[in-house]
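Subject: Interface between my chains keeps coming out wrong

I've been trying for a while to get a sensible model of this assembly. When I model each chain on its own everything looks fine, but I need the whole thing in one frame so I can look at the contacts. Pasting all components below, labels as-is. Any help appreciated, I'm running out of ideas.
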Amino acid sequence: MSYEQQPLEDLQHIKRMMERSSRFISLSGFSGIAAGLCALTGAWFANKKIECWVKGDCTMDGLIDRGGVQLLNDLLWIATITFIGAFISAFFFTWLRSKKTKVPIWGAATGRLFWNTLVPLAAGGIFIIRMMQLGEYELIPPACLIFYGLALVNASKYTLGEIRYVGYGQLALAILNLWNIGFGLYFWAMGFGVLHIIYGVWMWNKYEKRTSS
Amino acid sequence: MNPIKDLNKIFDSRIRLGIMSALMVNPEVSFNELKELLDITDGNLASHLKTLEESGTIQVQKGFIGRKTNTTYSVTKSGEKSFKAHIAALEQMIRSTK
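Reply #2:
Try treating it as a single job with all components included. I did that and got this:
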């Protein structure tokens, strides 16, 4: 065996095996793009809702009887549908990629990624629900961005490392938003929409372009 | 100095290198996870694991998940040391060829 002549290939093999066994590497760029498009669609609908409410184009019933509660309900529905849509489409493309690369989608690495993303997100979710109960609506968009940003920074240790920069981007947007209260929806669309799409295109270009042709 | 003499014969196989790589970055890895990672048959994997175990490089833990047996493997202290020395020797070889 000409083993002694291939130290470089051996080291590359070691690195590949370490990454495959410790990080979830099937995350597809298309997942980012799809989640981003869902977020932009959701933001567009939310914007229409808010516009119609502010301009007074909605039915009088809704405005007089239920007032802001109706709007809030509608926005919550839009947010929920957007989240489900983004999650399913993101999962779908990642599932496709894991089939292609023959890396099982559920393993120790996936469990770790899932848990470490979930902890900051769940804490943030509870925090935001309490904020809504107390009527602090202006702070909801920056709070979403901050907790999501922290979740991504934390997740970057367990999947493709570049996701860390998306996390930093979310945090930067959140801080800008804190001093530009009232433009929450735009910051939200930038963070959840545009950043996801940029990340998706970047990752696709870096990891998938070669293998998919 | 000849780095080749520092290469460990026990890691003279891509499969055993793969097993060690996975065990170095995880506290423990199950038989089935190793099988999926390396994409080899049960018998082949078992024989490589045996070699590593007998040399004191890795250790076996037998446990249960419900009623199913769950065998996991982890690297021993001396195994960690010899794998690191092996990597260092590989790096040394690359440097010396430049």
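Reply #3:
Confirming on my end. Chain B has a mean pLDDT of 88.
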